[in-house]
Amino acid sequence: MFDTLGTSWSLIKSSAKVLQADRELLIFPILSSIAVLMLSAVFFVPMLLVGYFNNMASNGLQLADYLILFLFYLLQYLIIFFNNTALVGAAMIRIRGGDPTVKDGIKIAYDRFVSIFFYALIAATVGILLSFIKNKGNTLARIVVSLVGFVWNVATFLVVPVLAVEDVGPVEAIKRSVAYLKKTW
Hints:
The protein has 185 residues and is mainly α. It contains nine helices and no strands. Helix 2 (27-49) packs antiparallel against helix 4. The radius of gyration is 19 Å and the shape is globular. The chain starts with a helix and ends with a helix.
């Protein structure tokens, strides 16, 4: 176990060195954050202004609410996964001895857009299903859903790096993420 923790720590240090060498790559998490904040404003400010949340609080979540939430999840995940793929792709260029630019990272993410979109679709579906079950279930269901959500997050931890580096589809990326985690841990 301590070997794998050491490996994880080494990977974190290597990643930090890449970002120190290429500070311009910090633009990806910054862009991602700004875009998610803008998306949140586009979704939630109009809802707040029309009293949507008061209505939802008194009536509970309805099917339309879950559809809106699903669309929000999908777009949010798409933004995050796109920027993270760009960052990982550019970092891999640096690790392989190249000198990446922001344009290089964007090109890598753009080239994998279809896979990123379908992975965002899968992640949003899982997220909305877990949210639905958690909201409709009893205490035991909430505990089980929390555990399933944790397992999902762990299992898919390496999906974005797999998408960036190996250029595979989202289902294969999930399978490889699980396999790499099993191999490492």
